[in-house]
């Protein structure tokens, strides 16, 4: 991971923690190369998750390290999710890493599992929100004192004014992760959680990048996700496995998690069997 505050505590004694991949300002290139080399030697493969919102210099550092080491055992997975969504997805992959899946399957599972993370926030203003389409009326209402907005950024954008609409949630069993910013409200626990029929609520500290991502520090970020690892395991197992024709690593879905090569030919692309039942999307790649 690229930030320590994106690493959620493990759910049990078997879930491994995550190594931190420092930004260029925090670590010289030589040290970053040495650390990555140790990770590869100790673990065989390294799956590096990072948000699409990290600074360009940090992203370049990740690619430089992989290029200099000339290693085909380092996967760089760029996630276009809000910070808390990145956190819950990263923990799911940490849980899968101790299952009987190959590193290639775990890496390519990130794209599949991201479709099952409902990531959003309660905001006091959307005037600086540029991650979700915001209409002129919503912008205008942001200036009215006391106005709050419910927003979902993933898997598809939604925006409602609290009291004048509802956010559509997942149609399968989830748990809700909540991180509080500088906004006082019980709406997430009292209204959203019952409406989405979540199985439980877990609280964590707000990631440092969340105010910038959402455009305000007065927010409560939330993410509904598959908390039962047996269900996550079943979902990943239900997808046919392929071998990347470019690097030879096993994968699921339509793109290799390690070299990013698309699966070819097109008619061989994998389809999920819908392991979660009714209302669950069939994954064919973004």
Structural description of this entry:
A 6-stranded mixed beta sheet has the order 5-4-3-8-6-7, sandwiched between helices. It folds into 2 domains: 4-116, Rossmann fold, CATH 3.40.50; 118-225, Hypothetical Protein Tm841, Chain: A,domain 3 (2-Layer Sandwich), CATH 3.30.1180. It has 286 residues and is an alpha+beta fold. α1 (29-43) crosses α2 (56-69) and α3 (83-96) packs antiparallel against α4. The two termini are 23 Å apart. 30% of the residues lie in helices and 18% in strands. The model is unreliable at 268-275 and 277-286 (pLDDT under 50).
Key attributes of the depicted protein:
two-stranded parallel ribbon, 286 residues, Hypothetical Protein Tm841, Chain: A,domain 3, six-stranded mixed sheet, alpha+beta, single chain, 2 domains, disordered C terminus, Rossmann fold
CATH level 3 topology of the largest domain:
Rossmann fold
Strand content: 15-25%
Order of helices and strands: HEHEHHEHEEEHEHEHEE
The share of residues in helices is 25-40%
Mean pLDDT over the full residue set: 89
Q: Unreliable segments (pLDDT under 50, ≥5 consecutive)?
A: 268-275, 277-286
* Shape designation: globular
Radius of gyration: 19 Å
Which structural class matches the secondary elements?
alpha+beta
In short:
With 286 residues, the protein is an alpha+beta fold. The chain contains eight helices and ten strands. It has a six-stranded mixed β-sheet with strand order 5-4-3-8-6-7, with helices on both faces. Strands 1-2 form a two-stranded parallel ribbon. Strands 9-10 form a two-stranded antiparallel sheet.
